[in-house]
Amino acid sequence: MHPLIASLRGRLIVSCQAYPGEPMRCPETMAQIALAAERGGAAAIRCQGLADIAAVKGRVEVPVIGLWKEGREGVYITPTLRHARACSNAGADVVAVDATGRPRPDGLTFAETVRALKSEGVLVMADCGSIDDAGRAAAAGCAILSTTLAGYTGQRPRTDGPDVELLELMVAEFPEFPVICEGRIHTPEHAEAVMAAGAWAAVVGTAVTHPTTITGWFDDSVRRGGERAKR
Hints:
Elements: H1 3-6, E1 11-16, H2 27-39, E2 44-48, H3 50-57, E3 64-67, H4 81-90, E4 94-98, H5 110-119, E5 123-127, H6 131-140, E6 144-146, H7 164-173, E7 179-182, H8 188-196, E8 201-204, H9 206-209, H10 211-230
Parallel strand pairs: 1-2, 1-8, 2-3, 3-4, 4-5, 5-6, 6-7, 7-8
Helix pairs in contact: 2-3, 5-6
């Protein structure tokens, strides 16, 4: 196993992403958040876009998992071999790639994409939405399997919290691979639960790095509490 992957075992990975049009959509802002997350104990940072990857890589000492989102439907997480190579060239230590069997914009299969990246020494994190995706990623020889796309591809229902069931299936089916849990880990209790279920590491994004959403959670709770007080 690659030493970088081994270093993530039992640790927290923080996803630092902001979408176009959001107030925090700035590479320098993402790099500052990444540095704060590193100081808080994050063992790696996951980030999106070439400018963010380069900015974060220049700020933190922990590994950077990079991806490039393009589009909103189908395969949009690092959708082509060109996107993946660009992420690596921007400084990503690991490149996250959509591992579904859906058609890819460049016409390559997932296996062909991974084969090319591995030949260039790139570590690939397979973003999976089902156990079939995990099987595809394992057969391709990805360095990491993850539950990132669970509930977002139509293959599985979207759970309120992390998809622990898929995590457990992947851990049982592919014990020789590190399986990372990502997706809807919104509380420390969620994080503890996925680690207890066998996750190699846990990726937390929104609950740490997306203040708009976090503010909304608290605003909803305050309003509900206020309504109860009026009764």
